[in-house]
Amino acid sequence: MPLKLEHQELHANLVKATKAGGRVGDAAKAVARVLHVHFVKEEQVTLPPLGLLSTLARHQVARGIKKVLPMTDRLKAELPKMLEEHESVVTALKVDM
Fold first, then answer.
1. How far is Cα 88 from Cα 68, in angstroms, rounded to an integer?
2. What radius of gyration, in Å, describes the C-alpha atoms of the chain?
3. Using alpha carbons only, what angle is made at residue 79 by residues 75 and 85, rounded to the nearest 5 degrees?
4. Distance in Å from the first CA to the final CA of the chain
5. Domain for residue 97, yes or no?
6. Residue 62 lies in a domain
7. How far apart, in whole angstroms, are the C-alpha atoms of residue 33 and residue 66?
8. How much is the pTM?
9. CA 65, CA 72: separation in Å to the nearest integer?
10. What is the pLDDT tens value at each position of the chain, 97 positions in all?
11. Which of 51, 64, 84, 90 is 20 to 30 A from 45, comparing alpha carbons?
12. Would you say residue 96 lies in a domain?
């Protein structure tokens, strides 16, 4: 899934940035703290339902749909918090150079 690959690439780049030291390293560490929990949540709650969208868009019943329905309820409940986490990442990225 593309989002999972994006997470892996971002994580690898973030690890490199944390080793840069100075303000960049400090900012990368702050971002890493926010992103880790957020990525885990996205991969557990967001990605499974999104993975079914192409099948549903073709008006087909997706296998595993019953397992995903509780995840969509959880996603609906947690979406405001997840959006706040996105804002926290943006704030952590603001480094005065």
1. 28
2. 16
3. 125
4. 35
5. no
6. yes
7. 33
8. 0.65
9. 10
10. 577 788 889 889 989 999 998 988 888 888 888 888 888 888 888 888 888 888 888 888 877 788 888 888 988 998 999 899 888 888 877 765 4
11. 90
12. no
